[in-house]
Amino acid sequence: MTVGQPLFRDEAVLQFYTGVAQALKEGLFAEAVDALEKILEIAIDYPGASAALKCAAFWKERLEREYAARDGFERGEQLMAQWRLFQAFAERLPDMPERCLFAIKQFVFSSALACYLSAESGQTVDDPDVLLQIGRCCKGLGNYERAIENLERANIERKEDPRILAELADCYSLVNEARAAKVFLRESFFLDPQAVDLAGLESPLVQRLAGRLRSMGYSGPALAEWMPVYGAIWGVFNVKREMKPLEFGKLKQGIYQLEKDCSAAGAARDLLVPRLINRYFWLIDHYLTTGEPRERIEEILAKIRELDPRVHQEYTA
Asked: What is the C-alpha separation between 16 and 18, in angstroms, rounded?
């Protein structure tokens, strides 16, 4: 290769790079490391090679430390836990090749799926935890219909699990079923925002909302708590349903407890306030649906204004 010649025109190096992606997809991380080191010997500034090498080394090291005595479900959980660590690791790398990232994801999720399927085959009844993870893996591999099938089965076995509902919302959004997605998403954040795996949700419906909140300075646990509040204000959570009498009773009890908790001083109040405001929104929706007197709604709006004047202004604008 002559000096100054663009590296991507060198067929030998390009062939190396194509082989790297295939090696990553097959989980041959030692081979990928060797190939990437050869690329960097030829041209140290080859675009993305340094980042890809770090990623291949990440997985090579961790897979070499695996324990053999682990059942299918535990093995799958270990892989998914490592994937979450890897996501944070890869986000810090500049010039990360999407091709390599996709190849690694294919390997991790297909391997984890095989583990969870082996665990499912040993069950006499549907295990919602296993079905949830199968659904997540299928979603990660782009098989959204199969993901929905398993997540719906999980939802039958375990009602009102915010993790299952959030994944269902994500998958329905990815197949352009916006109404179902919004219903499930609103329900999941109502039940427990902290149980929702925001980092694992891929749909633009979720990511755009989260992105706007991050630009406002929200992060960590607070981000999850404010998601349903601003989801309602900005019209994302605009598909609602009528509450059953038992659900309405639980809502009132929850509001009463949160009002007591919010009145106590402490750092936890920062997380309790948006959760309480979200429940006030649900209560207002219920009053509107059932035709309650306007005075009741005004009482709730006054409580929201006392908690957060800015939210009150945006909600009533």
From this structure: 6
Query: Which is nearest to 58 in space by CA: 35, 75, 83?
Result: 83
Helix (H, G, I), strand (E, B) or coil at 141: coil
CATH number given to 123-188: 1.25.40.10
**Per residue in 52-65, pLDDT tens?**
999 999 999 988 87
Going by C-beta distance under 8 Å and a sequence separation of 6 or more, which residues neighbour residue 205?
169, 170, 173, 178, 181, 182, 185, 236
Of the CA atoms within 13 Å of residue 191, those in its CB half-sphere come to 16
Please state whether the predicted TM-score (pTM) of the whole model is above 0.85: yes
Of 150, 155, 126, nearest to 138 by C-alpha is 150
Cβ pair 116, 133 in contact under 8 A? yes
Of 100 and 280, more confident: 280
Q: Are 201 and 224 in contact (CB under 8 A)?
A: no
Interval 1-31: pLDDT, tens: 333 344 444 565 566 667 888 999 999 999 9
Angle, CA 157 vertex, CA 152 and CA 158 arms, to 5°: 95
Q: What's the length of the chain?
A: 317
Four-point Cα dihedral 73, 54, 106, 61, nearest 10: -30
What CA–CA distance (Å, rounded) separates 218 from 246? 33
Neighbours of 66 (CB within 10 A): 11
- In terms of Cβ atoms closer than 10 Å to its own Cβ (0-12, 13-18, 19+), residue 185 is buried
- Block residue for tokens 């509001």: 255
Please, which residues have CB within 8 angstroms of residue 234's CB and are 6 or more apart in sequence?
209, 212
- The ranges assigned to domains in the chain are 1-64+84-103, 123-188, 245-316
